[in-house]
Amino acid sequence: MFVKFHLDQLGCTVKKFKDNRPGPDWAKSFLKRHKNSLTLRMCQNIKRSRAAVSRADINSFFYNFSKTVEGVPPSNIINYDETNLSDDPGRKKIICKRGTKYPERIMNQTKCSTTVMFAAAADGKLLPPFVIYKSLQLYDTWTEGGPIGTRYNRTPSGWIDGCCFTEWFSKIVIPFFQKITG
Length: 182
Hints:
Distance between the termini: 60 Å
Shape: elongated
Helix content: 25-40%
Number of helices: 5
Strand content: 15-25%
Radius of gyration: 24 Å
């Protein structure tokens, strides 16, 4: 479609292309001609809000963060990340610059999901994970074999909600900080 748009903008008509649209063979030949700079890769799907974060936003965050934690021991700083594990929401191959480590496609939906909340202190100590299943019930077999101290819950969506966050904070974060000084 991009080639059609470009040709139409130039006012050119390529007789080989039906309605000025090249076919799959042309695309394969194009990739072959530009194999040193383009490649086909499976992309990761990210939301528009995440794609909109700029380099300036990130630099500003780290500048402000470094000022905020001045004098705070690394053992008293934790970072946590809610990681959603979902079945394949339709990953596609895309054309991207050769060497691109993480090709991404922006989309706002996924299929079923399980969330894991990971947290670690800045000194390297790991907090137990918190697992949230997409379910109305939490089955005993789902809570077997995890790392020591792991907590489990469920939500209708598989995403963390206020109740799960409160449980994670009160059952994992607070006990962690009660064991350290400062």
